[in-house]
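Record type: monomer structure entry
Structure origin: computed from sequence
Chain ID: A
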Amino acid sequence: MKFPFSSRDLQALASLRKAILKQKEWEATHEDPLNRKRREGIEKDIDRRFNAVMDNIGEDGRDRMVRALNRFLELAEQKALTAYRKEDGTYELVNPREEPKGPT
């Protein structure tokens, strides 16, 4: 026996499924604004704290700090692993001898 509202219910479920899939696709390609604001706040705090440290150490200390940071960045570039984001939102490390399979 066919129920009188079953076709409308199926259409509503199909529309809901489509909306959920569109939302998941959007979330995979766009950053959450709250996370972006938090990260920007953390970056500003780090910048403020770093500038305070640099202001309070002498010229010799500044030179040593800049050399140490430069060395750290050189090592990070040499030793860092690259990851790419898969379609399901998870990340996979790239073998250094292989080309990345997607956007990094």
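Annotation 1: The radius of gyration is 25 Å.
Annotation 2: The beta strands are 83-85, 91-93.
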